[in-house]
Amino acid sequence: MNWHNIKGKIRYALILSSIFVLATTQKVKALQCGVKEIEIGTVYNQYDLDSDGIADTFKAAVTMGSKTAKKSIESTEETGTLRIYINNDVVFEQTRNGYPYWQLSLITLQNGRTFVDIESTVGSDDDCMHGLYALRNGQLESICDFQEPYSKYGNYYHVTITKVSGNYLIADAGAQFFTTGITHWTMKFQYMICKCQERHESFERTADSFKIRYKTMPVKNKWTAGKKLKAYKKAGSRKAVYTVKKGETVKINRVVFKKNKVYFQIKNRKGKTVYIPCASKYKYKQDFKEAMFAG
Fold first, then answer.
1. Residue 19 has pLDDT above 50, yes or no
2. What is the 3-class SS of the chain, one letter each residue?
């Protein structure tokens, strides 16, 4: 057999193989980009969690009952434990009481970086814990706490990542604030990386003020004050510039976060725009009569 013909066939086979691998790699990247909801117990092997260019295996498992309980938590059938395995190693573990359940997603940015979105809630749909995690040094570490701004100002809160746009996250957000009750809005988060020695990663809100989304709420933008409320020129100001009288109707246009405190931008009938702080606890005498509370 002609040696030149053999080399030509080998070269041709290698070219075809390279084209196939390249096409397959591009297809996998296209499938990975975005939000992938995770089913508990299913193994996923198309995601690169440690950014080494090699796909890892990912699996989440939940067990209920006394065998999963830690010593510091009461051992009952109400106890549940989530364990996350990457390449068969346990990289995350969370144990909770009260019949907990978990929702997980893999979030992949356009730059190829993949993160784990972990949300847990107890059986009463309360006490939500939700964060975004990155694999570092063999463990999942929290890089964004989605619940931090809400814990002191309401309950039944959620932040659901609905879309990835480049290296940004689009999230559907909602909370049952003590001032307004059920409230919905949309947020955007930007991927940030500190080019220091440890290359610290985080996700930051692109703004602190968000338009309230009334189309998905049980109330319209017409609020009647249930008592006198002090209003301020800016969110976080100390000197009141206006008093919303009991029975006065206003519009509440935006929810504002400043230094982990919550405020609302309101506008009265005369078109004056001011800000009121969100109540830090539920009161029987509500700030606004239209505020609706579930549960």
1. no
2. CCHHHHHHHHHHHHHHHHHHHHHHHHHHHHHHCEEEEECCCCCEEEECCCCCCCCEEEEEEEEECHHHCCCCCCCCCCCEEEEEEECCEEEEEEEECCCCEEEEEEEECCCCCEEEEEEEECCCCCCCEEEEEEEECCEEEEEEECCCCCCCCEEEEEEEEEEEECCEEEEEEEEEECCCEEEEEEEEEEEEECCCCCCCEEEEECCCEEEECHHHCCCCCCEEECCCEEEECCCCCCCEEEEECCCCEEEEEEEEEECCEEEEEEECCCCCEEEEECCCCCCCCCCECCCECCC
